[in-house]
């Protein structure tokens, strides 16, 4: 009798980072039947995600030592941008000849950020993330809204979409990734600094004066974005303001969650990216520079107090 063809083994996925994005993407990939390893610094007893009022566990393999892993098909790098250098040990162990790395981080210049940390020739897929989630406790993720990943179109993007097909993580392939990256940066440029500095939720952006400040911040950044080659205009500013207006008022931002948990902030890769790009093009950015100065002061105090990793709370 002819033998039945054996089913292909599930794709091997390693997710670096056990925060909100890492935990959420690892869970969805595992639920879709993929072979998922979650790489974290501190041990986790388990992983679960709450979404729509339902809590569901994810049977991922959780490891804390790069010596415990071997090359995989895909690496999803989900650490905060400022923690990227600390992922080098994981990346060196996880990247083999056929491995691709998807960088699920905030900011711009994702390929350049990661390229020095992976073996030469490793394919890198910069990824814009539209997922609102927070880590309420180690291994406990609360998903608020959205599950979209935007990547530059091409064969690697097609392969990425095929791997995640059916996971609930929707992969969108875009022709102009520079514009896509700046549009995502826009969603963070006002919400992250303002909520973190005020230690308030997204609802604060509905205040008319706060909305006016937000528009001015984004208009300032739009000039920089166009100088960087992004097709960003008034419609993008309006779209961002509408996004803030329709977001759940009790939702937060990743920078707010980091401040509440006593973790270092991501300001240098968000607001700082705008200020530095403005400097390169001779464009003044007084509003964003002011926010950057304030955020640096907050971050300095967090580091001085040595609160990194001391607490992890939900506001």
TrEMBL record:
Pathway: Cofactor biosynthesis; (R)-pantothenate biosynthesis; (R)-pantoate from 3-methyl-2-oxobutanoate: step 2/2. The keyword Oxidoreductase applies. Residues 176-298 form the Ketopantoate reductase C-terminal domain. Gene3D superfamilies: N-(1-d-carboxylethyl)-l-norvaline Dehydrogenase, domain 2, NAD(P)-binding Rossmann-like Domain. Keywords: NADP, Oxidoreductase, Pantothenate biosynthesis. Residues 13-153 form the Ketopantoate reductase N-terminal domain. It is an enzyme of class 1 (oxidoreductase). Pfam families: ApbA, ApbA_C. Its EC number is 1.1.1.169. It catalyses: (R)-pantoate + NADP(+) = 2-dehydropantoate + NADPH + H(+). Belongs to the ketopantoate reductase family. Catalyzes the NADPH-dependent reduction of ketopantoate into pantoic acid. This is 2-dehydropantoate 2-reductase. It comes from Streptomyces decoyicus.
